[in-house]
Design goal:
The chain has one domain: Hypothetical protein af1432. Helices cover about 60% and strands about 0% of the residues. It starts with 13 loop residues before the first helix and ends with a helix. With about 200 residues, it is mainly alpha-helical. α2 packs antiparallel against α3, α2 packs across α6 and α4 packs antiparallel against α5.
Length: about 200
């Protein structure tokens, strides 16, 4: 078994784990792959080690399911949540894991939602990566949208970045805001500058 497989929380549902691993290993995925899942689980561990309080089993299961379906369509989070509801039916986790997966569409958990906060923070922690990893993340996202022209992808990417950069805060837990937010905002600003430069060079707004 791989290290990632060993991090699955429910040994009695190994078949579910294997189906999820196969989904994340789909070669059509550029960024939302097994490395992304590993990094989200790592960030959950980091938050726990920092003393952030949350339910580790629920958060880990939500991490496993949060990109279970990823094909570039808008309802991927909903389909991932439905997969969680079906796969975890009969366990104490189904409804809560599905709720958390749905949260990753907006990354806007409530103030009284520690499990939602840590999952959303762990999912967006890629934004605070060192430059080499951040560049690889952007390249991976581009591969997932290879069917779009360069200008169309750039326009969509700019919209996503502006939405993120315009938020009062990217992260919800105090640890993530202190540790990840400055680097994340610097990366967002740098990428926006890079996307704007070619248009400026052509004299376009």
């Amino acid at each position: 078994m791989t290290d990632l497989a060993e991090r699955w929380p429910l040994a009695e549902l190994a078949d579910v784990r294997d189906a999820l691993l196969a989904a994340y290993d789909d070669p059509s995925r550029g960024y939302h792959d097994s490395l992304h899942l590993t990094e989200v689980l790592d960030r959950l561990d980091e938050l726990a080690d920092a003393g952030v309080g949350f339910d580790p089993a629920v958060a880990a299961l939500a991490a496993w399911f949060h990109d279970a379906v990823y094909d570039g369509e808008r309802d991927a989070e909903e389909r991932s949540a439905m997969w969680a509801e079906e796969a975890l039916d009969g366990t104490p986790y189904a409804a809560e894991v599905a709720r958390l997966v749905r949260l990753t569409e907006t990354h806007d958990p409530g103030e009284d939602d520690p499990d939602g906060q840590v999952l959303c923070d762990a999912d967006l922690a890629i934004l605070a990566s060192p430059q080499q990893r951040y560049d690889a993340y952007v390249a991976g996202v581009r591969r997932e949208y290879a069917y779009l022209s360069g200008p169309d992808f750039a326009a969509g990417r700019v919209a996503v970045l502006h939405d993120l950069a315009g938020r009062d805060r990217l992260f919800h837990t105090p640890y993530a805001r202190e540790t990840w937010e400055p680097a994340a905002r610097a990366n967002l600003g740098h990428e926006l500058e890079q996307l704007a430069a070619p248009r400026d060079a052509r004299g376009q707004e």
